[in-house]
Amino acid sequence: MAVYLKPTETVLQELDTNKAGLTREEAARRLVENGGNELAKAKKKGIPRRFLEQLINPMVLVLIAAAAVSVVLAALEGGNLHEYAEAGIILVVVLLNSILGVFQENKAEKAIEALQEMSAATAKVRRGGDVARIPARELVVGDIVLLEAGDAVPADIRLLQCASLQIEEAALTGESVPVGKITSALRGDDSGAASDGDSGGDSGGVTLGDRRNMAYMGSDVTYGRGEGVVAAVGMDTEMGKIAGIIQSTAEGETPLQRRLSQLSKILSILVLGICAVIFVVQLIRAGEISTDVIMPSFMLAVSLAVAAIPEGLAAVITIVLSIGVTNMAKRNAIIRRLPAVETLGCTQIICSDKTGTLTQNKMTVVESYGDEKLVAKAMALCCDSQLSQDGEIMGDPTENALVAHALANGLDKNALADQFPRVAEAPFDSARKLMSTIHKTPRGFVQFTKGAPEEVLRVCSHALVEGNTGDTGGAAPVPMVPMAPMVPMSIGILEKIDAQNMDYANRALRVLACAYKEYDTLPVSCGPADIESGMTFVGLTAMIDPVRPEAKAAVDSCNSSGIKVVMITGDHKDTAIAIARDLGIITSMDQAITGRELEKLSDDEFEDRIENIFVYARVQPDHKVRIVNMWKHKGYITAMTGDGVNDAPAIKSGDIGVGMGITGTDVTKNVADMVLSDDNFATIVAAVEEGRRIYENIKKTIQFLLSSNASEVLSIFIAILMGFELFLPIHLLYINLITDSIPAIALGMDPAESGIMEQPPRGRKEGIFSDGLGFDTLYQGVLITILTLAAYFIVDIWEGHTAAMTAAFYTMSMSEVFHAVNLRSRKQNIFTLKTTNKLMWGAIGLSLVLTLTVIYVPALADVFSLQALTLADLALTTGLSLTIIPMVEAVKAILRWVRRLR
User: Fold this and answer.
1) Average pLDDT for residues 500-528, to the nearest whole number?
2) Dihedral, CA atoms, 153, 157, 158, 162, nearest 10 degrees?
3) For a Cys-Cys bond, which of 337, 435, 567, 733 suits 673, CB 3.0-4.6 Å?
4) What percent of the chain has pLDDT over 70?
5) Using an 8 Å Cβ cutoff, are 653 and 612 in contact?
6) Residue 659: pLDDT band by 50, 70, 90 thresholds?
7) 481: pLDDT confidence band, cut at 50, 70 and 90?
8) Is there a catalytic annotation at residue 503?
9) What's the burial of 491, exposed, middle or buried (CB within 10 Å: 0-12/13-18/19+)?
10) Would you call 723 helix, strand, or coil by DSSP?
């Protein structure tokens, strides 16, 4: 039930309890009947199950099938070492990839453990009229809990009594400052407003951050004291609901995983097609169907099909992603899930929490009205925040901002406190919205009062007009005694103050006013009613949780890269709009809505409007998940960033979740795919650039390996049709694992091409063969096939079959190696690139040396059934191999010309 909508008497009655608390017997009965105040533990997966899940992947299954076929062929051929070697290498690749996957952390499991750690260990309760401290897990609905400053709230509690109670809820609601609590029932049609009676209803549409008569598990008491009745425990609490969302949110595939799965399916179909075609062709050529014909034909078809599988692809991608992890760590982005390395590169939407992510999560005075030093003195003395010897300010975030403001004006809080010691006070009260302190001075006593401007003005009879405040220097023996007479408060002065206050409010600044009054002797009674009257208005301070200095440039960079930034916050709408406008996220108030407005939209209405909404205020955790999921439903690749517990479900729902390493809670970091070690939103932009580079390099690698395998299949197919043997299985194994994989790794390390951040992000539905990759793979495979067969036929004329096979082997090996140079850019002329890749030159040199070693070292040449090429043959085949570079560049130039015509 929505206890925040009901009066305390009704709540106690419905929960069958009273202010004296449950009896010990009744509490024990409820504990047995309903269970303890604990979050459900995530189900742990065993290592065998995790390992099996890694193997159930299309790409891995294709590799396992290839290894199995190789073993069968080796057995049929009487223990062929080449086939066994290929099977062994494939299985090693599969094993390494699976081990990497197994050791990825179970994020949901760790998130729930972190949530449990955030729960309070003990709670102070009243049972049967006696106060006792018990383990928080033993709390039951109906218990009366006592709260004071420093306590962690142990359950969801409907407050019954408050004495200046303030609770820090930033991690749960996104509220940037502690919330002052009340006990009155709320009205469902006016968030946060008190009601005189039972408003009834079920939820009333009051968002989590507006339920000021509630204290929630996972929040902390920062000021005052209070007591309340436990309304929900364990998984029924708001924290428990978050835990439930995390547990129920399925781990989705990254864009790269989806594209590799698509590639695996295509390869599987091609492999089966090749088997069928070769088998049929062989039967047709044989002219008969018999065991002597079928078995050799089948083995030849399967051998060729295995050759079509790029065995090194999975290993190369794993290596490229792993190195990407290292590079991102150097840029303060820690990757927790390997395939997520490239996901940011294709991100189209970044849903970001405001507090602590786009802003500093530190209230700061940005403007003041009146004499600044005088205002700073009054505010610093009339607050409870302390300044440590090492300069750290400790206390309420709002009061910390006042002490920092004084310090910036040369006023040390400790020095002021020594000079003007506090002798009495009227603590802050959320009802009157004021705080007053009285200090001893050489002339007597002075009172400072601060609070909401309308309340401070209500107790002021005079004002200090700007310019008439006298000496306010730090060395003044008396803090504030105007040298000119104070001015009686008038309508004109009030209007001027109100206008300034309204200006601050319109800019979503949090405004406090201050006033003072002098005494010759200390008042007999220092209660609020006795001292808060006849005061002199001093001035105003305006503060806000400011934008992180680098966030504006980062948002601008996202906008220019075609990435939309969406702000999602639990803070108030006007504050969110002000920050969003400052950052350039929105240009109109129509682009912002609240959580309550979101709840009123049906899924169809929300789907129609979502592309025009970029700020969501006063939202709850389930709202954030709905927003992220709707962007995903619309086909956008979506990232979610945040630092609070309330962000965790949405972070887990996003295509990539980004947590904050410094201010982020353990819950958030444990469900995130990437953690920013510097909490810098700008780091996301750097990660986007790195992700784009990695994805482009993976596409280059895929194109390179597939075009190489295509050339092998085409060459062998043509040779079969023409009736000669072009390659042995060991030749294909060497080419696939040496002269293909070494340049492919170097290609994966290629620097980013210029303008990579000026391109729009790729879409969710973009296939692996999109953007011309399929055509490029095919024509480049054909070109290498032509060069390979040309080398065979030319050398065969004067040297014979073995020399011709060697020439074809060398030409295909080196053509593929040189072809890697072409793919340093899939579209642009490689001779105009402004970056260099030293690894590529190293890969070319290593591949050349290894290939020449295989040909010219007699023992290896015998194993590979090759013969040493003559100098003329070597010059011819090297020339043919190098020809691939200008041939591909010529085709690229034609394609660029065609694109310009379009």
Assistant:
1) 93
2) -20
3) 337
4) 85
5) no
6) confident
7) very low
8) no
9) exposed
10) coil
User: Residue 609 in 3-state DSSP?
Assistant: helix
Contact 855, 865 (CB under 8 A): no
Tokens 């060459």 label which residue? 715
User: Per-residue pLDDT averaged across 815-833, rounded?
Assistant: 93
Residue given tokens 């469902």 in the structure block:
188
Instruction: Tell me what percent of the chain is helix, strand and coil, each rounded to the nearest 5.
Output: 55, 15, 30
CA dihedral for 57, 59, 62, 68, sign (positive or negative): negative
Give the type of residue at 885.
I
**Which is it for the CA torsion 775, 754, 566, 215, positive or negative?**
positive
Q: How many CA atoms lie within 13 A of 769 on its CB side?
A: 14
Q: Which residues contact 143 (CB under 8 A, 6 or more apart)?
A: 17, 21, 22, 27, 123, 125, 127, 155, 229, 230
CA-CA distances (angstroms) from residue 726 to 396, 722, 783, 802? 80, 10, 17, 9
Look-up: residue for tokens 């001292």? 531
pLDDT band at 814 (very low <50, low <70, confident <90, very high): very high
- pLDDT value for 622: 84
Quick check: 442 and 478 in contact, CB under 8 A? yes
| Beta strands 564-568 and 349-353, pairing class | parallel
135 and 121 Cβ atoms separated by less than 8 Å: yes
Global confidence as pTM: 0.73
**The pLDDT of residue 493:** 93
State how far the Cα of 526 lies from the Cα of 292, in Å rounded to an integer. Answer: 111
Residue written as tokens 């020095």?
415
Q: Where are the alpha helices (DSSP H) in 637-680?
A: 648-653, 666-671
CA distances from 266 to 63, 270, 378, 680 (A): 13, 6, 73, 41
Rounded Cα–Cα distance for residues 760 and 239 (Å): 38
376, 409 in Cβ contact below 8 A? yes
Tell me the three-class secondary structure of 116-171, residue by residue.
HHHCCCEEEEEECCEEEEEEHHHCCCCCEEEEECCCECCCEEEEEEEEEEEEECHH
The CA distance from 313 to 701, in Å, is: 8
Residue in 143, 353, 571, 582 annotated catalytic: 353
Nearest CA to 513 among 558, 463, 479? Answer: 463
pLDDT of residue 467: 43
Identity of the residue numbered 617: A
Which position has the token pair 């945040």?
642
Q: Read off the tokens for 417.
A: 């406190």
